Amino acid sequence: DPLDPTQVPLDVFDNCDGDLDFSIEAWPLSGSCPGSWMRIWTATDDCGNVAMAEQYLALFDETAPVITCPADTILVIDQDIADDTTTTALGMAEAMDNCSGWSDITITYVDGDFSVDCEGDDDQPEGTMSFTRTFTAADFCDNTASCTQMITLIDTLAPMVTVEDATVSCLDYDPTMTYGSFTAEDNFDTDVAHSWVEDSVYA
């Protein structure tokens, strides 16, 4: 704080008054980092005698911002895998800094790779998955701090199955053959595994 007299103080003496009154005025000379300030010290003794002195300071900021991430989130995905994972829907990090005002703090984020939590039955692991969103706050002097938000996308929908009946005469029926057709689609899995059992045979 440029107005704090305990920061880079001056030595002042008086021939009579051992407890002088001080005041400080401060003006920024540059907005760069480190910042340059000019301070005008005014010392007043008990008899009203006044002395003034100029002091020039270079202010260094080496303290990172304090950043807070939004809470971890679990989303249930619909049939089209459509859900809003933007920061508008899931929250944006907030940050405070000892020197920079909120308008001088820049917050960015990067999404990590998906981690699939379901073991697939083929070479394409698909299903419930999660990823980490890393937020980073940078102040005016490029000090940075980061935090993370875990976002989980849950697949709770079963595959959609379509079957087609088939009519086969008893003479042509072969129990080793599969008759009719079967298709399955899933919102996550591109190769749905399937099996069948023979329920009954009608004569």
Q: Structural class of the helices, strands and pairings?
A: mainly beta
- How much helical structure, as a percent, in the residues? under 10%
What sort of overall outline do the alpha carbons produce when their principal axes are compared? rod-shaped
Oligomer: single chain
Quick structural summary:
By secondary structure, this protein is mostly beta strands. The protein has one helix and twelve strands, in the order βββββαβββββββ. β1 and β2 (35-44) form a beta hairpin.
Topology of this structure?
Blueprint: E1 21-30, E2 35-44, E3 50-59, E4 66-68, E5 73-76, H1 87-90, E6 94-96, E7 106-111, E8 115-116, E9 129-138, E10 144-154, E11 160-164, E12 181-185
Parallel strand pairs: 5-10
Antiparallel strand pairs: 1-2, 2-3, 4-6, 7-9, 8-9, 9-10, 11-12
What are its keywords?
single chain; 203 residues; mainly beta; five-stranded mixed sheet; three-stranded antiparallel sheet; 1 helix; 12 strands; 2% helix; rod-shaped
Describe the structure.
- The chain has one helix at about 85-90, and strands at about 20-30, 35-45, 50-60, 65-70, 75, 95, 105-110, 115, 130-140, 145-155, 160-165, 180-185.
- The protein is an all-beta fold.
- The strands form 4 sheets. Strands 5, 7, 8, 9 and 10 form a 5-stranded mixed β-sheet that branches.
- The mean pLDDT is about 80.
